[in-house]
Specification:
Length: 237
């Protein structure tokens, strides 16, 4: 009498990947076995176990909260941008109403300190020597002044930059007003016309106020506006 050899069946052990794969390939599983959802309990941070359904509700609630927070944040940003746009419009009207460059610069300095929370502001225009001879304002600098090289890259790109200006730039712009190195962060905006160039520099004692890469589109627009307004005084006679 011969005995039939018993066949051994091996089953591949369950793994997280296999379970996940099965559920992905069989999305109707929980529909057909809805009772399982209420029976499954999973660990919770409180130390107790909660049902899978409750866990999903908590996840959805948290996602909804995060979505609402993002919406409120966007609304707040929109409000701030709207307020800045109104201030920018008012500044434009104020600058256009001034008949002399001295009044324009003073109005701009005061407004930027108030509405952009700047600690110090400066404008430097690299213009023809004849214009300097007709003006006693420190904002007008010789067109080929060596200090112009401090802002060579900025003037070539014609794009504003934010971050920390170097000590030589600070010394040129603010040496008569404060100690060199006091400016912790800044925005420098290029100004330019047909045969002249310049810069608008806005400085803060707070290193976090003007961060590299921050959005400075409004200040860029301000540079274009100022360039147009001071054009009559900056052009060569």
């Amino acid at each position: 009498m011969s005995l039939k050899k018993e066949e051994k069946h091996t089953t591949e052990p369950f793994t997280e990947d296999l379970v996940a794969k099965y559920l992905k390939e069989n999305p109707e599983f929980f529909v057909k076995n809805s009772a399982i959802l209420s029976e499954l309990n999973i660990p919770h941070e409180t130390g107790t176990a909660i049902s899978l359904v409750e866990k999903q509700l908590l996840v959805l609630r948290e996602q909804n909260k995060e979505t609402n927070e993002k919406i409120y944040e966007l609304i707040e940003i929109a409000r701030k941008n709207e307020a800045l746009a109104r201030r920018m419009h008012q500044l434009a009207l104020t600058l256009m109403d001034n008949k002399e460059p001295g009044g324009i610069f003073i109005a701009m300095y005061d407004d930027l300190k108030k509405n952009f929370h700047a600690d110090i502001v400066a404008v430097r225009l690299f213009v023809h020597s004849s214009i300097i001879n007709d003006s006693s304002l420190e904002e007008f600098v010789e067109k080929n002044s060596i200090e112009k090289n401090l802002f060579k890259e900025l003037l070539e790109k014609k794009e504003p930059v934010s971050g920390k200006m170097n000590l030589d730039q600070q010394a040129f712009l603010f040496n008569s007003d404060l100690d060199v190195g006091a400016i912790a962060s800044s925005v420098i905006v290029p100004l330019y016309g047909k045969n002249w160039e310049g810069i608008l520099a806005i400085g803060s004692f707070d290193s976090k106020h003007f961060q590299p890469g921050m959005g400075i589109e409004l200040l860029s627009n301000l540079g274009e506006m100022l360039s147009l307004i001071i054009k009559p005084w900056a052009e060569e006679k």
